[in-house]
Amino acid sequence: MKILLVEDDIPLAQGLKQSLRNESYTINWVDKGNDAVNAVLTEDFDSVILDLGLPDINGLDVLRKIKEKNKHIPVLILTARDGVENKVKGLDLGAEDYLAKPFDIAELLARLRVIERRMGTNQDNTIVINNIKLDTKAQQILMDDESVNFSRREYMIVKSLMENAGRINSKASLENKLYEWGEEVCSNTIEVHVHNIRKKLPKTFIKTVRGVGYIVSKA
Question: Treating both helix axes as pointing N-terminal to C-terminal, what angle do 171-178 and 189-200 enclose, rounded to 10 degrees?
């Protein structure tokens, strides 16, 4: 899942970026509300983590503008403003969830997993398709109940395909989920990752839709 993090507390933002990367999320970070709005206007994100206390624009106005652009994008409000009024305003404007600072990273991760389940086809932390099982909480993929070793990006590709079983994932959409701003992406990167994944899973598990992308069939 590709997340836009909007947070002006630099130490907190750096810590969140590292923690979320460790959980195989792709994170792009901005520290101003205007930059957040521009980012959503020009790029696709799966979700937004939004601090309300921003230096240039009120976070609720940022939320409103984001929802005007894409009313379906999940937004998790992350703020020190834990009063009922701001919480209600944020939820009324379409925020998916609300987390007050200080918070435990484990709770943030749990709430992001809930958002992922709502976005995808799975309704649990565990997705099972044929003899392949993916545990999003443990970040583990098993074949015939035996753990299979994947790189971070290989895991992210399998996760995206299994979460959206029955739907075609284009090469561009997979690249968008895997890479952050400033990272170099070679033209055949996704093909190389899929080739390596197929060496570890049944060859027919990931099917190529020529000229379109890749798909994993539903169980």
Answer: 90
Evaluate whether 36 touches 10 at the Cβ level (below 8 Å): no
> Which 3 state secondary structure label does DSSP give 140?
strand
Our separate counts of H helices and E strands in the chain read: 8, 12
Please, what is the Cα angle at 20 between 165 and 79, to 5 degrees? 110
Give pLDDT tens digits for 133-157. 999 888 899 999 999 999 989 999 9
Residues 156-184 have pLDDT tens digits of: 999 999 988 899 999 988 988 888 877 77
CA–CA distance, 34 with 174 (Å, rounded to integer): 27
How many C-alpha atoms does 79 have within 13 Å on its Cβ side? 23
Structure tokens, 55: 């230096």
End-to-end Cα separation, the chain, in angstroms:
22
Please give the C-alpha separations between residue 21 and each of 2, 36, 173, 210, in angstroms, as whole numbers: 10, 19, 18, 31
59-69 vs 33-42: helix crossing angle, rounded to 10: 10
Cβ atoms of 28 and 180 closer than 8 Å: yes
* CB of 217 closer than 8 Å to CB of 166: yes
Contact call for residues 27 and 17 (beta carbons, < 8 A): yes
Give the distance from CA 58 to its chain's centroid. 24
Cα 197 to Cα 143: distance, rounded to the nearest angstrom: 12
